[in-house]
């Protein structure tokens, strides 16, 4: 199915379902690493590496229904988006943990909520945008 023909509301709902699963997976990883004494920055890095792979596969195949094979450009775009989201997440997390003294668990939950809409629109209109629309009249 071409992502242009998919109902945007259904697309957003499916993205959020996958995102919720991804967030739950990421929080379990993050919380587990924090619990075992790993620094919150290292825990966030591990969380993002696993979450990015999970999100990419599910969103490509189910949310945005991209039948095209994975390209270097698509991977670069995904890495760019997640690199930016990671940096924003790290900044938010550091501000909440270091300056506002909010615990590391709650800080990450708040950060995930703040960044979810940005991540959706970045993936929809940048990572998984159908490149063929640029070449049609």
What structural keywords apply?
4 helices; mainly alpha; single chain; 137 residues; disordered C terminus
Short description:
The protein has 137 residues and is mostly helical. The protein is 76% helix and 0% strand.
Helix content: over 70%
**What is the global morphology?**
elongated
Report the sheet-strand fraction. Answer: under 5%
Judged by helices, strands and strand pairing, the structural class is mainly alpha
From the N-terminal CA to the C-terminal CA, the straight-line distance is 21 Å
Count the DSSP helices: 4
Largest sheet: none
Radius of gyration: 16 Å
Low-confidence stretches: 131-137
Give the integer mean of the pLDDT values.
Answer: 86
Q: What is the number of domains?
A: 1
SSE order in H/E notation? HHHH
Kindly state the number of beta strands.
0
